[in-house]
Amino acid sequence: MVAHETILRASGGARSEIARIGGIGSLRGLHNAQNAACAAACAMALGLSTETLQRGLRSFPGLAHRMEQVGRRGHVLFVTDSKGTNADAAAHALSSFTEIFWIAGGKPKLGGITSLGEYFPRIRKAYLIGEAAKEFAATLEGSVPHEISETLEGRGGQRRAGCGGIGFAGCGRAVVAGLRVVRSVPQF
């Protein structure tokens, strides 16, 4: 079980700490905490020590394109979640951050992004790309500042957003997370 960024073992009515996951960027979010707790249970069942488990969790780089931290500029963390290609998957990333600058778009999916409404207050601005941009703009209208950003054909046929309006000063914990970011920006 997970409580307050700590993986706990519950046995015989008592709880004991197994590992701390707070501050491990690759394990940010409730869904990753639950995955880490399952991995911890397996590791403990195989006889790994809590010290070895903690070292393993701290060194876990995360999965490519799944809330992957691709850079930092000042106080702004850049995250790609391009595997989150539908609203259910994107909800995990959006629930894990506050003050979000969101690059979202790609191909429209059934249901669009209306189910993400509870996370709209966290989004400072959305930059919309791809075929779904107009549909997403209609959903965000009146709730989230947004703009439809041009996409440019890049190397290898990949696309990238033209989001020049992101202001870095005073953004605090602002994050760029993508429902369908198809090119990470490693030079940051």
Description of the structure:
The protein is about 25% helix and about 30% strand. The chain is an alpha/beta fold.
Terminus-to-terminus distance = 36 Å
Report helical residue fraction.
Answer: 10-25%
Number of strands: 11
Structural class: alpha/beta
Helix and strand string, N-terminal first? Answer: EEEHHEEHEEHEEEE
Backbone CA Rg: 18 Å
pLDDT below 50 for ≥5 consecutive residues: which ranges?
152-188
Gross morphology is: elongated
Major sheet summary line? 6 strands, mixed
Strand order of the largest sheet: 4-5-11-6-7-8
Strand content: 25-35%
Mean pLDDT: 80
Number of helices: 4
Summarize the structure.
With 188 residues, the chain is an alpha/beta fold. It is built from 4 helices and 11 strands; from the N terminus they run E-E-E-H-H-E-E-H-E-E-H-E-E-E-E.
Write the layout of secondary structure elements.
Elements: E1 2-3, E2 6-11, E3 14-20, H1 30-45, H2 50-59, E4 68-73, E5 76-80, H3 87-95, E6 100-105, E7 123-129, H4 133-140, E8 146-148, E9 151-153, E10 159-161, E11 175-178
Parallel strand pairs: 5-11, 6-7, 6-11, 7-8
Antiparallel strand pairs: 1-2, 2-3, 4-5, 9-10
Summary tags:
188 residues; alpha/beta; three-stranded antiparallel beta sheet; 4 helices; 11 strands; 28% strand; elongated; disordered C terminus
